[in-house]
Amino acid sequence: MSDSGPSRFAPQNKTTQERLSTNTVGLVALSDYRKRRTEVIEQQEREAREAAFTTTSTPDRSLTDTPDPTGSDSTGAGPRPAKKKKKQGKKLLSFDDEEEGDDAPVVIKPKKTGEAQDNAGKNESKFKPNASVGLAPKVMTKAALRKEAEEREALRREFVAIQEAVKATEIAIPFVFYDGANTPGGIVRVKKGDFAWVFLDKSRKVGAELGVGEKANAQRTWARVGVDDLMLVRGTIIIPHHYDFYFFALNKSIGPGGTRIFDYSAEAPKRETTAEGAAGPVTTSASRAAAAKALPDVRTLEGADDDPTLTKVVDRRWYERHKHIYPASTWQDFDPEKDYTREIRRDTGGNTFFYK
Fold first, then answer.
1. CA 275: distance to chain centroid?
2. CA distance 200 to 261
3. Which end of the chain has fewer CB within 10 Å, C or N?
């Protein structure tokens, strides 16, 4: 007795891929796909074992490529259709490529020498020096640093020597005593490095020698007056005691009217040479006495030709009593930060002066 259909023990000539394509439609998880794949492979192996047990000595032509001349199989079944070329089923899952990629061998292609060098160049190009830095720091040895420090020290000493030479230069300041009227005071010899209080102290001694004042004991009065009781007024600017004349010469300080407060040079004087032609300081006491006698006349010094009324020596007590009266009302303390050229001159009442 034979069935009209194919034997249930005959293996179905379907590939694993074809079976997977049929049994995995609609799956969305990779774990489900792997489970279904395992079941398909086990079923295929089980069918192959069953077919091996039931097969007789005559091989099943359905498992070979040799066609059956009678057009029927060994079980007497009807003619079997011609075997068609198997086509790989269409992939239905997006993760099918990933699964095949896991089974497929991984081939690592070695990079060419040129390509490796290009990649190395690209990696190196990521680290470039900072373009905003104009010059790279110069590496200096200890000897170079020591030499540079010595040069700076030499320049500093040279500047200090020039500065001391300027400060040691003598100047002449003609002045008057002022108490509402000008009383001639003569000329005082000072140095550019001296402070204003040094000038006031010398002017006080000049006043004692001349006996300036209306009182009979004027000489004693000027001898007992202190420097703190005196004021130095240059034009209309009250010069504080702690300022030296070198400050005004170096900074070329401008006062009201656009003129310099003290018009003295800040350049070092020319050094005088000895008979042998070598310049040097005087060392012995005899030479110092000779140098004192050889001092230049005060009238030949810088500033000797200034107007005496430009520099006033004023008793501070008199100023406190008359500072609301002209011209004391126009006097003002010196401010190094103030621009006197743009100043609008006013008196203590706020009235503007329309004259210089």
1. 56
2. 17
3. N
pLDDT tens digits for 251-280? 999 998 889 999 999 888 776 544 444 445
Report which of residues 158 and 99 the model is more confident about: 158
Whole-number Å distance between alpha carbons of 313 and 284: 37
205 φ, ψ (degrees, to nearest 5): -65, -35
The helix-helix angle for 30-54 and 16-23 (nearest 10°) equals: 130
Cβ proximity of 30 and 9 under 8 Å: no
Q: In the chain, what's the furthest Cα-to-Cα distance? A: 173
Judge residue 207's burial from the number of C-beta atoms within 10 Å of its C-beta, 0-12 exposed, 13-18 middle, 19 or more buried.
buried
* 82-92 per-position pLDDT tens digit: 444 444 544 44
178: exposed, middle or buried (C-beta count within 10 Å: 0-12, 13-18, 19+)? Answer: buried
Query: Do the strands 237-239 and 332-333 form a parallel or antiparallel pair, or are they unpaired?
Result: parallel
Candidates 345, 163, 348; CA nearest to 257 is 345
Question: Contact, 262 vs 245, CB < 8 A?
Answer: yes
